[in-house]
Amino acid sequence: MPAYREEQPTSTPVTLATDQAVTELLFAAKTNLKKADPNSAVHKVYFNPDLSPQEAQKAYLRRQDRRLKNGGPNHVNSPLNALAPPFPATV
User: Fold this and answer.
1) Mean pLDDT, consecutive 10-residue segments, the chain of 91 residues?
2) How many CA atoms lie within 13 A of 61 on its CB side?
3) Is 33 in contact with 42 (CB distance < 8 Å)?
4) Which of 25, 27, 43, 91 has the fewest CB atoms found within 10 Å of its own CB?
C-alpha cells in the first residue's frame, strides 16, 4: 500500500439524485477533461460507477482472478522477494 502523501487529495464520494444527472455530469466531465492541460490535477480525476450488489460481487471476483493470474495476493511489482529472510545484523 502506498504511503500517504499530503499533496494527494483523498477521494470524495458524490451521489447524484437521478440517472439523468449522472449521465449529464459524466458527459460534461469527459468532454472538459479532454480539453484540460495534461499536467493539471484534473487528469487524476476518476469516476467510479455505482454498482448493484451483484455487479460489485462480479467486479470483486474479476479483480481476485486478475490478481491471482498476476502472481497471487502477495505479489508486488518488484524484483525483490518480500518473503525473503532478513540479512544478519553485523556490528
Assistant:
1) 59 84 88 83 74 88 87 61 76 63
2) 6
3) yes
4) 91
How many residues are recorded in the chain?
91
Cβ neighbours for 67, distance < 8 A, ≥ 6 positions apart: 73, 75
Q: What is the pLDDT of residue 61?
A: 92
DSSP the chain: -PPP-TTSPPP-----SSHHHHHHHHHHHHHHHHHS-TTSGGGG---PPP--HHHHHHHHHHHHHHHHHTT-TT--SSSS-TTSPPPPP--
Euclidean distance between CA atoms 58 and 52, whole angstroms: 10
Query: What pLDDT is stored for residue 58 in this prediction?
Result: 93
